[in-house]
Design brief:
18% strand, 5-stranded parallel β-sheet, binds flavin mononucleotide, 196 residues, globular
């Protein structure tokens, strides 16, 4: 059965580049037969964090937050597409993730970072690893680091020379690793419900 994967991306910039990687990943997982959806933080447009989802009385959270909570709870795995601003995480994606906590628990997550130059968002990749672990996800060891993103993917998210083929190779391993941990988690969920 297909795994339900959510791909999160959170740049709010008009000229954003990371959407290329998000689109590439969605297409790649779909080609592998997975059930995948892009969660674009800018399109959802949650406000700066005031109340977390769980702090609203049942049924009173804003509709877009309620809908997203349902998608997160129903997912088997997550992928975070992470750009880097001044060695840190992008605020739009961080703001979205901070609205939730228990909704993330007990599922694997993969990190795919990128940047305009060769550092490939490595520092945001590192920062997200701790954040996702704190939020109850099991972060897989395989990762993607894409840079320069403009030499790797075109505006439609299609791989281009010179760096595109390297991403294709890395994605195959990343996707296989995520699938393995996702299957493992699904078996465990069926056998033993999470303790809390
Ligand atoms: C405010 C800001 C800070 C940035 N800081 C970094 C940085 O620390 N490291 C880096 O590799 N690239 C940095 N960049 C360049 C980004 O890698 C590049 O603009 C990338 O396309 C940003 O992702 P986005 O286009 O999806 O918003 C920065 C860009 C902006 C706008």
């Amino acid at each position: 059965m297909a795994n339900r994967i959510l791909v999160f991306y959170g740049s709010y910039r008009s000229d954003r580049m990371g959407i290329r990687l998000a689109d590439y990943l969605v297409a790649g997982f779909r080609a592998r037969g997975e059930q995948v959806e892009l969660i674009d933080a800018r399109a959802i447009g949650l406000p700066m964090l005031d109340r977390m989802y769980k702090e609203y009385p049942r049924g009173e959270a804003p509709a877009e937050m309620e809908a997203l909570a349902g998608k997160i709870r129903a997912a088997d795995a997550f992928v975070f597409v992470t750009g880097e601003y001044n060695w840190g995480v992008q605020p739009g994606l961080k703001n979205l993730t901070d609205h939730f906590l228990e909704e993330w628990f007990w599922r694997p997550a993969g990190i795919a970072s990128y940047s305009r130059q060769r550092m490939s968002g490595a520092r945001s990749n590192f920062a997200w690893h701790g954040t996702l672990s704190e939020m109850g996800m099991a972060v897989i060891s395989s990762t993607l680091a894409v840079g320069p993103i403009g030499d790797t993917l075109d505006a439609d998210g299609k791989p281009i020379d010179p760096a595109g083929p390297l991403l294709e190779k890395a994605f195959a391993r990343f996707a296989a690793d995520l699938a393995w941990w996702t299957e493992a988690a699904k078996i465990q969920h069926a056998r033993t419900p999470p303790p809390y």
